[in-house]
Amino acid sequence: GENVEQHPSTLSVQEGDSAVIKCTYSDSASNYFPWYKQELGKGPQLIIDIRSNVGEKKDQRIAVTLNKTAKHFSLHITETQPEDSAVYFCAATIGTGFQKLVFGTGTRLLVSP
Amino acid sequence: AAGVIQSPRHLIKEKRETATLKCYPIPRHDTVYWYQQGPGQDPQFLISFYEKMQSDKGSIPDRFSAQQFSDYHSELNMSSLELGDSALYFCASRLTRETIADTQYFGPGTRLTVL
Fold first, then answer.
1. Pairing with B48, which of A53, A92, B20, B59 sits 20 to 30 Å away (CA)?
2. Does position B35 have pLDDT exceeding 90, yes or no?
3. How far apart are CA A2 and CA A101, in angstroms?
4. Distances (CA, A) of B89 to A55, B24, B33, B81, B100
5. Distance between CA B88 and CA A9 in Å, rounded?
6. Residues of chain A whose pLDDT is less than 50?
7. Facing residues of B100 across strands?
């Protein structure tokens, strides 16, 4: 089945720096790659997603890139702020139709003022 | 905008007891997914429903069952609870029938503690 690896597990940056989180997936049939932000005690919140027919997508300070050949996708956060501190999960969908999510193991991002 | 509603938010049970978790999807959403998240872990897919029919099944124990009702809300029934069932349980909803949208929107979760 699908396997999603995520690195790093923890990431500490200074406010204003950029943060990059990387994921790889195993199933070449995967075609949808969302990123979720999870704050303590809350449910995962979608922050950006990308489909397999697109190589890059940007939304203000957040961008995601996808390399289908390498089965690799990354989250880029620029001008980080303390409120960006949270656990970030990448995910990939497998199967057709109802596409359950397979999550990476998460990255704890800490942005220091 | 309306979000996914889950109830209860917190639940404490004894071993071998039964628990029922409820999920109310975003209005018009027809697909519900259940995920289990252990402490410090990523969410793991349990089961999903589309138009009241089970659409996929993951690592859900036989002690658990779920269903989706005519109003699209879903319930996860957990019997013979074990200590290892203590976790956050998330419901996510998605609108499948009208578009090719893939986005799953997550609820706030139910924290189940088994003593």
1. A53
2. yes
3. 10
4. 33, 14, 10, 14, 26
5. 20
6. none
7. none
Q: How many CA atoms lie within 13 A of A27 on its CB side?
A: 18
Instruction: Single out the residue of A95, A111, A107, A102 nearest to residue A34, CA to CA.
Output: A102
| Option in B58, B107, B111 nearest A100 (CB) | B58
Q: What is the DSSP string of B22-47?
A: EEEPPTT--EEEEEEE-TTS--EEEE
Phi, psi of A82 (to 5 degrees): -55, -35
- Residue among B18, B23, B32, B22 nearest B79 (CA): B18
Task: List, in sequence order, every residue forming a beta bridge with A109; answer none if it has no partner.
Answer: A11, A86
Give the B-side interface with A, CB within 8 Å. Answer: 4, 31, 33, 35, 41-45, 48, 50, 55-56, 58, 90, 92, 96, 102-109, 111
Residues of A with CB under 8 A from a CB of B: 32, 34, 36, 41-46, 49, 51, 89, 93, 95, 97-106
**What pLDDT is recorded for position B111?**
97
Six token digits for residue B36 = 């289990």
Token pair 């989250």 is found at: A75
User: Around Cβ B49, how many Cβ atoms within 10 Å?
Assistant: 23
Mean pLDDT of B40-60: 92
